[in-house]
């Protein structure tokens, strides 16, 4: 299978697809799959632009809206992760991944999928020490602070990816793993980016959690972006490095560029000896933003790609659902050195757990259930949008996520965050689908008609695996409800009946997780790395 890897997309989908078409004609090949390493900028309309953490002069609709509206169709299956310049409100609708447009799939906060037997994992966002231990507390409309913290990597996604036991062929991130420059041509990197020297000297170039993931997951390939330059490295691992019990060869490095062709052995090796790392530039003329990889598949060659959920990843999502936090302060995940408390800390699925999740799905193929949840940009009516004041959009639930959570039996973090802050859940909108199908060389996609909103009649049911809120004898006649208040107002105390308490309690409390010690807590202390536009 021939796979194209893109660095920072920055919304330039038409240019990227045109470049791929040019490569196909020049080399007389057919590229089957496109992977994008963040800053995808899936902005559907002007309101989406208001959630991007960029100066107003950089706000540009670019071309994604054409693929969202159906004006154009992505010519190949495209899979992407989020970066630090995104339509965060749209991506928050799909925390576990989903279709953002026909033939364009988002991996979510973190995710693992299989494409014709090739296992692809990824994590969205960038690392900031002061937000890493927090929960996913943000929801639109964002404040100046949450507009940025919403795309910061959280510990839960890193923890979940650490539970993977099977072979990972490709891993995608936006950030670089910290210390990766030591495994490639560092001198050449500093000639091209001399300002990196200070961050390298202080150990702040790259992400600490990704450094940990690289040593634990040990994928065959790791692709990244963010720093707007092309850089290759070969990371030599020691075997059986799992969950902080690892070490790397200090002397392992290479000055050569990443090989375009795999030797074919890595797909059969449970723990690869080497991870081939490649960072790419952003999509601009005369910049090295695209790489083509030829990778063997475990399945027979077919003209149609099959995108499937990963059973082990689904099981990990299910067994760690109780660890979700929507708190705006630090909390800690279970670890091996958690004092005398006996709590599960290894969530690598057992055979019984895998079988339980497998029974929930008739098959693992990702359903083609894309639907629009917002209006589409009109270049004629909104041509002067940069000079107009536009409010941020309100939070919107996505039927794809609702369906996925109900099937797997897990919670939507966006729902929990809103409920924990006393907000009313928005009504779910679904959209009528046309029975007509659009066939492409790689996949079949059901295209939506013009949006026709249909209000969901059933209430959103949360799958909170938590005990109901206990009300003490002193408070048995009243319960405090979180409501929106002015700064000088006192909290409202509303008397409720005993029957009402049972209904209110489960949804008025955020996950109440015990604070556990974590032996590597010290490496996640607050520190800021400069963000790249």
Question: Could you provide a short overview of the structure?
Answer:
Helix content is 21%, strand content 17%. With 533 residues, the protein is of the alpha/beta class.
Task: Write a concise keyword list for the protein shown above.
533 residues; alpha/beta; seven-stranded mixed beta sheet; 15 helices; 17 strands; globular
Describe this structure in words.
The structure is a single chain. The protein is α/β, with parallel strands linked by helices and 533 residues long. It is 21% helix and 17% strand. The protein has 15 helices and 17 strands. It has a seven-stranded mixed beta sheet. A six-stranded mixed beta sheet has the order 4-5-3-2-1-12. Strands 14-15 form a two-stranded antiparallel ribbon. It starts with a strand and ends in a 29-residue tail after the last helix.
Oligomer: single chain
- Total beta strands: 17
Number of domains: 2
Look at the structure and give the mean pLDDT: 79
Alpha-carbon distance between the termini? 32 Å
Strand order within the widest beta sheet = 10-11-9-8-7-6-13
Low-confidence stretches: 244-269, 431-530
Provide the gyration radius in Å.
Answer: 23 Å
What is the number of helical segments per DSSP (H or I, 4+ residues)?
15
What structural class should be given to the helix and strand makeup? alpha/beta
Q: What would you call the shape?
A: globular
Which range does the strand content fall in?
A: 15-25%
Q: Largest sheet, if any?
A: 7 strands, mixed
Helix content: 10-25%
Helices and strands, with pairings:
Layout: E1 2-6, H1 13-27, E2 33-36, H2 46-49, H3 64-69, E3 77-80, H4 88-92, E4 98-101, E5 104-106, E6 110-115, E7 118-123, H5 129-132, H6 146-149, H7 155-162, E8 170-172, H8 186-192, H9 196-202, H10 208-217, E9 221-224, E10 231-236, E11 274-279, E12 290-294, E13 307-309, H11 311-319, H12 351-358, H13 399-408, H14 413-420, E14 429-439, E15 444-455, E16 478-480, E17 493-495, H15 498-504
Helix pairs in contact: 7-10, 11-12
